[in-house]
Amino acid sequence: MTSDWLSASELRIGLGCMRLSTDADRDPERAGATIAAAVAAGITVFDTARAYGRDATELGHNERLLAGALRRSGAADIARVVTKGGMTRQGGGWVPDGRAKAIRGDCEASLAALDGLAIDTYLLHAPDPRTPWATSVRALARLHAEGLVRRVGLSNVNRHQLDAALELAPITAVEVALSIVDDGPLRGGLVQRCAELGITLIAHSPLGGVRRAATLGRREPLARAAARHGTEPAEVALAWLLSVSPTVVAIPGARRPETARAAARAAALSVTDEDQAELRPRPRAAPARPTAGEVVMVMGIPGAGKTRLAQEYVARGYERLNRDERRGSLREVVGTLDERLGAGAPRILLDNTYLTRAARNDVVETATHHGAAVRCLWLSTPLAQAQINLVTRLIALHGSLPMPDELRALARTTEGVMAPTSQMRTVRELEPPALDEGFAEVQEVAFTRAGDGEAGRSGVLVAAPALDQPGWEAALTEADPAAPHLVFDWRPDEGPDALDPAVARLRDVVSGDVSRALCPHGGGPPTCWCRPPLPGLAVAFAASHELALSRLIVIGSGPAHRTLANALGARHILAVA
Q: pLDDT tens for residues 25-81?
């Protein structure tokens, strides 16, 4: 199915405008000339975003720049402006904010920045792992229903997220990274899904991004195709991309007038069968002989428990291919799988995250190529339990709960160590596995926590604010006064001595050891594992006193403390009058 987003006379090449505002050497005059050259070359699609600027002080910079250039070029009435919201620039970084009020506020700010230019298509910049997906998508739907924008769509999503969004909003466009050197959306089925439904797929970074674009000429198949057509490798790469599906629109990030004109020329270039045969990503030779081997893929978010399950299979005679152990990439693991199946290995186990259809596709294609069946074991461990597993592993490696600087340093050198936001990001990226990916079987494995129960001692965690509630002493009567107690709290920029008064009050009424733990780190996305309701302080306390998590009691004063207790499997007592 073709997309009706563009008319038949419009080019399927647009202009990505981000770098006109974000580059250190940006030049307003050159940016205006680039946009004017794109208009003169017949380009009608212009991609921007409220967040495109150098930092949080420049929100709307790119939209204002684009609007002014389009007016001066006489294209204000014919240009299709694609902009995005739901992204903040905290500390110069890129932090999604998918709350409904944030999306609406960004849209209204974009309309003001565009100063009268209509928003043809408004995209959610990226999923926010802290906000329910349905909340963000419904906010998009309301913008369309109220007429603030002509169309709505999504950016930086996978097929699973698209399918979920289609139940809630009239999605007409999806923007993702797609190129001859980054075919993840192809392998993940997103391109095919958009083609089936007539949804426009806007390919950003269509030359592979700044660094890889500079090396396209060194790719021999691309260089040969360019020589046959008498053109540049970049133009052939764009033409190949448009040949992938009739719903694809490429938006290269031109920074100079000549590159904008070259991009437009690619729309008229026809890719031949000979080109397709040479340019096909990851060409594969025929196997020497088929195998009757079996491949088991163990997948799940970091901390899901993959290692424990993998060890069970290794004990049964499976050969394990694990990226962390080999200190390589998933691509290298697939290469080893290809070699081992080719050598006749009968049973192979792969336990890596494999969050996306694209990542799993490489394994399935390689196994199928050798005639081997692939079984998928999906550990659907809840995030809260995976967080406990990661923190437990972190404390075992480091000896204590690391502070943010220590955590960042460890993450650079130690596999499986990460900040909370990195783990949350994997939840956002997760696409549940399905049989239509080519699996012989998909089995969902529910999480059970092993080794925690009657063997460990009990302990009591007391949130410092709970000691300010009239009912705190009554709450304590339900716990063992001789058990170890921990007073904990989150107080940005304060030291642990701030808890001394609370510790003194508690010592007056209990006989067990009383210790303290404070998270002093600031708000925003967490950079540490110690901010409640994250489980760092509780798990460290339990580890140091050899306590069973399920035998803890949490005496709290708010929702965060209840959330922490639920994650630990602990009893929660609310201190109230």
A: 999 999 999 999 999 999 999 999 999 999 999 999 999 999 999 999 999 999 999
Query: Which letter, b or e, does each residue of 292-315 get, where b requires 16 or more Cβ atoms within 10 Å of its Cβ?
Result: ebbbbbbbbbbbbbbbebbeebee
Sign for the CA dihedral angle at 14, 16, 17, 23 comes to negative
* DSSP letter string, 375-409: EEEEE---HHHHHHHHHHHHHHHHSS---HHHHHH
First to last CA, the chain: 64
Say what the pTM is: 0.81
Which value, in Å, is the radius of gyration of the alpha carbons in the chain? 27
The residues, any chain, with a CB within 8 Å of residue 508's CB and separated by 6 or more, are none
Cβ distance 93 to 43 under 8 Å?
no
- Kind plus residue range of the DSSP H or E element containing 552: strand 547-556
Q: What's the rounded Cα separation, in Å, for the pair 301 and 295?
A: 20
Instruction: Find the DSSP H helices in 379-486.
Output: 383-398, 404-413, 420-429, 472-476
Handedness of CA 256, 191, 128, 570 (dihedral sign): negative
The DSSP string of 187-208 is HTTHHHHHHHHT-EEEEESTTS
